[in-house]
Specification:
Layout (H helix, E strand, L loop, with lengths): L1 H29 L28 H5 L4 H7 L39 H4 L7 H9 L1 H4 L13 H13 L16 H13 L12 H5 L18 H4 L2
Helix pairs in contact: 3-7, 5-7
The protein binds heme C.
Pfam family, one: Cytochrom_C
Protein name: Cytochrome c family protein
Organism: Sphingosinicella rhizophila
Length: about 230
């Protein structure tokens, strides 16, 4: 009796040891190393615009391809409070005919906030861009309760539309290079002509360097993704 109990216990123990051993062995066999870089690079695919995740570009960049007709659509968000036709009535906000280029708070008889009256800026491209992005960031204390437009393309289109309504400010030239393929190409073509000693030394410009994700798209070694401009503003 005693003997049998021991035998059974022995078998049970033995089976346990074998099972444990087996699980250790298979664990070793099938243990997958987590790759350092997830995903796999696709040969010959260059990440579009390398800087796509970069901070927002200056508004002039977007203005270069802005569309006033699309801006008229965006203006629908403003039309609850603003007219923009010549001689249009003031509503919750002042009439906006020919406002681009004018000093702030220029519409006679509109009860502007002291904040806007005392800001002392004019509605140039930069200022208007900042305003429609975040009125209360540009002018703390403004009465314009509009959250703002986060997409730079929407703002550029809207600004082009505003400018077409009674104003005609010259559109600022787009900023040089940075992500504009045509201009980068032109720069590269220019480089040897610029005629420094170093024409045969391959020193990449910042733009060129940014164009080379080293075959590792979006993985380690790819350009770091910094936050959006929205996040940076906090
Ligand atoms: C909820 C109503 C409301 C909406 C929506 C609104 N605004 Fe306004 N807006 C105002 C008010 C009120 C003022 C006056 C602000 C002050 O005095 O501080 C104003 C002022 C302005 C001014 C200054 C005009 C001047 O004479 O200096 C501009 C430019 C302007 N708004 C553009 C826009 C645009 C563009 C949009 C759409 C993206 C928009 N607003 C949406 C209410 C609004």
């Amino acid at each position: 009796m005693d003997n049998r109990t021991n035998t059974i216990a022995g078998w049970v123990l033995g089976a346990g040891i074998i099972a444990l051993g087996a699980s250790i062995v298979t664990g070793e066999l099938f243990h997958g190393e987590r790759p350092e870089t997830m995903g796999y690079p696709i040969e010959g695919v260059v990440e579009e615009g390398a800087g796509a995740a970069e901070a927002e570009k200056p508004i002039a960049f977007y203005l270069a391809s802005a569309d006033a007709a699309a801006g008229a659509q965006v203006f629908k968000k403003c039309a609850a409070c603003h007219t923009i036709n010549q001689g249009g009535a003031n509503g919750v906000g002042p009439n906006l005919w020919a406002s681009m280029g004018k000093p702030m708070a220029h519409v006679p008889g509109f009860p502007y906030s002291d904040a806007l009256k005392s800001k002392g800026l004019s509605w140039d491209w930069e200022t208007m861009n900042h305003w429609v992005q975040s009125p209360k960031e540009l002018v703390p204390g403004t009465k314009m309760t509009f959250a703002g437009l986060s997409k730079p393309e929407d703002r550029a289109n809207l600004l082009a539309y505003l400018n077409s309504q009674g104003s005609n400010l010259p559109v600022p030239p787009p900023p040089a290079a940075e992500g504009n393929p045509a201009e980068i190409a032109a720069e590269e073509a220019d480089a040897p002509a610029a005629g420094d000693k170093a024409t045969d030394v391959p020193v990449p410009t910042e733009a060129q360097a940014a164009k080379q994700p080293e075959g590792n798209v979006g993985g380690e070694g790819a350009p770091a993704v910094t936050g959006t401009s929205k996040q940076e503003r906090h």
